Amino acid sequence: MIKFKPGKIIPAGDMYFIYGDGGTGKTSLSKQLTGNKVLLMFDGSYNALADTTDTMVYSFDDTDAPTLQQTVWQTVNMLANSEKVDAIILDNVTALQNWVLENIDGASKDGRQNYQKLQVWFRDLGMMLRRSKKTVLATAHQIDNGSNGLDGKGRFEADMNAKTFNAFTAPFDVVGRIYKDQKKRYIDLDSEQGNHAKNRLDERTLINASELFESKQEEKTA
Ligand SMILES: Nc1ncnc2c1ncn2[C@@H]1O[C@H](COP(=O)(O)OP(=O)(O)O)[C@@H](O)[C@H]1O
Ligand SMILES: [Mg+2]
């Protein structure tokens, strides 16, 4: 249950999950968010943020790996409960998942049960992020299955264990694939293309990457 004191009602933030190839601009997307931002980085690609002044970055590396679940859980929990934080960014969840799986595999050899543990951990992480009511951006790498068939539908997916992806992204409002074409950046939100995609916020199916967070802002100023 969430209780708001009178006059202290915090509007729920939207949750965005964006996957794509390296260099397509996933990390840079966080620059378009407003307010106090905290970014948890799992792939060391923080150079893209060197010119920012409004983002706190926690960059995890192999030295954190043995206790990563605990550290990430505690950190997200702390951020989720901080009134000073407006947006939480997880960049990138593919790397996070692989570290978590390595830890779980190291502790037990039961592969099937290990994937279940992975799913449950990510499901609960997704729920904690939703409960935070903050704006959330999570990124992931993509898998390109190659064009099969004439229409190429279902070609792209996030690089994660499929059930873990479903468990984690259930509370997310938007799932999209970022890509570059002729030097411009786009995000595909169209579930009808057969790729991992959804858009619960509005009717847009293909957007310029620079417009990702705009639907809500327009609504607010309207
Ligand atoms: N909207 C943008 N306009 C111009 N350059 C961009 C934009 N987004 C990203 N870049 C540049 O593209 C490169 C890769 O971006 P980055 O965010 O690190 O991608 P990723 O996290 O997907 O690997 C960086 O040099 C970054 O400055
Ligand atoms: Mg990056």
Automatic annotation (TrEMBL):
Domain of life: Bacteria
Residue stretches in coiled coil: none
InterPro entries hit by this protein: P-loop_NTPase (IPR027417), Phage_nucleotide-bp (IPR006505)
Short name of one Pfam family: AAA_24
Protein name per its UniProtKB record: Phage nucleotide-binding protein
Organism classification: Bacteria, Bacillati, Bacillota, Bacilli, Lactobacillales
